[in-house]
Amino acid sequence: MFSEVQVHRALVPLVALLVVLSACVSADDEPRSLLEPAPPTTVSRQESLRPDGETINRGTTIEPGVEYRYPIYTHCGIEWLGEFNDVLWRADVPAGVLDYVPAAWARAVGDGQSVVVTLLLTTQPDPVITATVNEVEIAYRPTTEDPPGCD
Q: What predicted TM-score, i.e. pTM, was given to this entire model?
């Protein structure tokens, strides 16, 4: 019939498939896609802030549930956050308002026309980066649109 080696070789792909499939089920037995990120864990805002306190640059890959400090140039408003995780992020701003900056954020703007915000990425139910200054939050969502130029 089959040798022991042949049986073991036949079982290896099956075991690998079972491992992959088990990763697709969360702790509450809700199936999820391999491409979908795991649900964020609850982390207190104080514990999650990067210990080095340094700011990040656009283009950085950020992790869900971890707070980051990021300087936003406010000369042309705060509608466009920039690119993180290979995606552009844009806020919904009041219609017809050019160069929108919330009043609480404007008070924190420095001489270089920028403000350092605290960013927090959440992925459930939809991906959102929340930027916070002086307890005022702005939600940024992924977009495929290109940002307009700024003078």
A: 0.64
